[in-house]
Amino acid sequence: MSLACSTCPVRDRAACSVLGEAEREELAKAGRTRKLAKGETLFTAGMSAASCATLLSGALKITSTDADGRERILSLVHPSGFVGEMFAPYMRHDVVALGDSELCVFSGPAFAEAIDRYPKLSQALLRRTQEDLFASRELLALTGNASAEQRVSGALLSISRAASDSPCHLASRFDLPISRGELADMLGLTIETVSRMLTRFEREGAIRRDGKRGIELVDPALLPLS
Amino acid sequence: MSLACSTCPVRDRAACSVLGEAEREELAKAGRTRKLAKGETLFTAGMSAASCATLLSGALKITSTDADGRERILSLVHPSGFVGEMFAPYMRHDVVALGDSELCVFSGPAFAEAIDRYPKLSQALLRRTQEDLFASRELLALTGNASAEQRVSGALLSISRAASDSPCHLASRFDLPISRGELADMLGLTIETVSRMLTRFEREGAIRRDGKRGIELVDPALLPLS
DNA sequence: CGTTCAAATTGCTGTGCCGCAATCCACAAA
DNA sequence: TTTGTGGATTGCGGCACAGCAATTTGAACG
Lengths: 226, 226
Prior knowledge:
The first copy, chain A, is α+β, with helices and mostly antiparallel strands. The first copy, chain A, has helices at 21-28, 108-117, 119-144, 148-163, 180-187, 191-203, and strands at residues 31-36, 41-43, 51-57, 60-65, 71-77, 82-84, 94-97, 101-107, 173-175, 207-210, 214-217. In chain A, a hairpin with a 5-residue loop joins strand 4 (60-65) and strand 5 (71-77).
């Protein structure tokens, strides 16, 4: 199935936005849209098909499962984000939909060919991959030797920043895109500890909670490590 | 100072190896060699010059320092590895030499121009950056919710793999490239804990230590998580 | 409006790692 | 040889987080 790029919700933010109209329509012929329901799996670690995709709407998580069966969230993917393997013959991590999502999927070889044909596309992906790399290292730094308090507050600030329009501005009111359990998996903590930290922050007047997912930053300066 | 690519030790492994002889010599005019002594700093987080480099010999660490002044190692860089910022106006992390090292340094804009001119170069960098991204996520998974025992054994196996010729084969005898303290910083542990785990592994017969850096894998199956 | 069930919260107890401090060890210089 | 020095090891006490269990919350449904 061919895609209607003209109505694509991430038309001007995705990697393919660096292409001209004609080039983009040409690329679209190699891809197809796919819808995922919440919790549905896009890729499984070890699966042998090289494949990749741009996220159009919804949200994804990239995870790995350790020997004990515990899941670790390695990255969150937001609309216009890119996931998958163009070169490697197998998937290295699991990719699962956090909520109902829509994607633009390409086969690995087809996308590799597109990269050959359109130098701008590989540059755009390089930039995006470098951003992902730094995001991963930020998370690594955050979960490294920080206390639970610092991790949760760091995650709150990071999510708040992602929720606002500009990446250097905090949204004072936002919804957590993930559950307590998922937040815990991402920070290397337990559900209970995350919950306790949020309770502490609220008691200290730094935040206010609105329902299970809603967060209001009352006084960000009270959060550790700011 | 111009470079003699013909004598470059990573001539056929670095990103620029995808270029033809003529193109490579052309690129070399934009770069210069630089030697770093052990412990010397190449980039400091926040510094405002966009710059990047290929490591020719030695080893580097990419680190971040948190609010408490504790250092966290985010990545190790081996010869033919690439570091720095081509696009962002400032450095995001510190880059320090682990031992005496030699680099091929480019200014950010000059390298960005080279990427524009040589599509193959941006593809090679894309591939390399994706590898770095997965390495970062592997480390994230390792340090996530694993016990100190699992982290140290995971690091031993990973380093052993890196020390052997093939990436899927374990070297039974190798030297740790970093000190206890650096290993601890990388795993989010303390020097003492790393030391205790190594002592435990030796007492259980899994490894034998030879001096401060030497490690012999006697029975890898005894290491947790294998 | 009540019912239902998963998710979140809270309390309690155990423990694994940290942090400090005292050695110990290997190596180098005198 | 002695002395010095930096890293590594070991012991010990404290605390932050994990793990379990009971309870509460709140969102979706009939």
